[in-house]
Design goal:
The chain has 191 residues and is of the alpha/beta class. It has 7 helices and 5 strands; from the N terminus they run βαβαβαβαβααα. Helix 5 packs across helix 7 and helix 6 packs across helix 7. It starts with a strand and ends in a 6-residue tail after the last helix.
């Protein structure tokens, strides 16, 4: 089975090492860094989950988490001191970051890694489905607009305009979208 890629980012190598030891190296491919600047150089999209123990070596890490904890990134889990009040963590939660309070056990860290990577995978699948539906919706809008122009300007029926667009795409070896855009650009005139 393919290992899940985990990013661990903490302020010191010692903390990175401790967190890495808590996870089973046989189950995870772990990348550990200590600075926000190092994280920015990575392709974070390859990770199943990203763990941050704040502060980082070169900044607090809050700004970086703001950037990373978007809808399109892997899940972000922030490991914080137990004395930080819940209201201070609100900003992280609003940024879609998950919170683990110290001390963190190996079982808690593993459970978080499994749950968040599973959630992240499902979330990525959902985003892909939404993108595909948006693409199809845009295609339908283009086709409808082009057909309407052909109906209005050339007096075609809906069925004739549909067949015309398909025939043009096939004969000219162009996509249906390209033909529709051409028709729309010409205002329903000849294409």
């Amino acid at each position: 089975m393919k290992k899940k890629k985990i990013l661990i980012c903490a302020g010191t190598e010692k903390i990175c090492g401790k967190l890495t030891e808590l996870l089973d190296a046989k189950a995870y491919d772990i990348t550990a860094v200590t600075a926000a600047s190092e994280v920015k150089e990575l392709d974070t999209g390859i990770f199943s989950v990203m763990f941050f123990s704040l502060p980082l070596a070169d900044e607090s890490g809050i700004k970086l988490i703001d950037e990373l904890a978007s809808d399109s990134s892997p899940p972000v889990c922030v490991i914080v001191r137990p004395d930080i009040p819940d209201n201070a963590l609100e900003r992280l939660v609003k940024d879609n970051a998950y919170i683990l309070k110290k001390p963190v056990s190996g079982s808690n860290l593993t459970l978080a890694a499994e749950l968040l990577s599973s959630f992240g995978g499902k979330s990525a699948d959902m985003r892909a489905r939404i993108s595909e539906l948006e693409r199809k919706n845009n295609e339908m809008k283009l086709m409808s607009r082009a057909k309407l122009l052909l109906i209005e300007k050339k007096g075609m029926s809906e069925e004739q305009s549909h067949k015309y667009i398909l025939r043009q795409a096939m004969n000219r070896q162009m996509s249906i979208d390209e033909i529709c855009r051409e028709i729309i650009g010409a205002g329903g005139g000849s294409s």
